[in-house]
Amino acid sequence: MRVKKWVSNFVTGVLLVLMLAVGLAVFASKSGGESSFFGYQLKTVLSGSMEPGIKTGSIIAIKPIQDASKLKKGDVITFRQVMNGQEIVITHRIIDVLNTGNGQVMYQTKGDNNPAPDTDKVLSQNVVATYSGFTVPQLGYFIDFAKSKPGSLWLLIVPGVLLILYSITNIWKIISKLEIKPKESKADSNVSG
């Protein structure tokens, strides 16, 4: 009996986690990847440039900022940069703060795992957020899979089938108990009569 209870609780827990993960993935993809939770955005790390502190495939929490001109050396920032004609988002550490003659601030950045600084300086208006220090290793792989068509299909069908099987099992147990009770009542009336 304990094993059945444990399996039941385990299946329920797995279903809840899968439903939460699918919900997060759908929410993130429908809001253009800029989903915000309690003022923080979640981003998937796609490269090893910040390892070992931030591993490839991790989810990181970043805090959007309004005034990016007050950042300092050592801060880890997320910024937009055009690379090969496409705008990408990068998270690297500030290694130097540069003031231009016209009052604008630029940052020299570098990935912790990269041998050299980034070739392009980052304008303060291209900085979108600062890294909060919160990381969930490997979860980014799962979220990216969940956003894909096969992943979405798999994450909808498998929990759906498990939920149906779980419901059928519970219904079968209730029906079995209802069938046993009338038999016991007839047996009790035959004994007393």
From TrEMBL:
<protein>
    <recommendedName>
        <fullName>Signal peptidase I</fullName>
        <ecNumber>3.4.21.89</ecNumber>
    </recommendedName>
</protein>
<dbReference type="GO" id="GO:0016020">
    <property type="term" value="C:membrane"/>
</dbReference>
<dbReference type="GO" id="GO:0009003">
    <property type="term" value="F:signal peptidase activity"/>
</dbReference>
<dbReference type="InterPro" id="IPR036286">
    <property type="entry name" value="LexA/Signal_pep-like_sf"/>
</dbReference>
<feature type="transmembrane region" description="Helical">
    <location>
        <begin position="153"/>
        <end position="175"/>
    </location>
</feature>
<dbReference type="GO" id="GO:0004252">
    <property type="term" value="F:serine-type endopeptidase activity"/>
</dbReference>
<dbReference type="InterPro" id="IPR019533">
    <property type="entry name" value="Peptidase_S26"/>
</dbReference>
<dbReference type="InterPro" id="IPR001733">
    <property type="entry name" value="Peptidase_S26B"/>
</dbReference>
<keyword id="KW-0472">Membrane</keyword>
<dbReference type="GO" id="GO:0006465">
    <property type="term" value="P:signal peptide processing"/>
</dbReference>
<keyword id="KW-0812">Transmembrane</keyword>
<keyword id="KW-1133">Transmembrane helix</keyword>
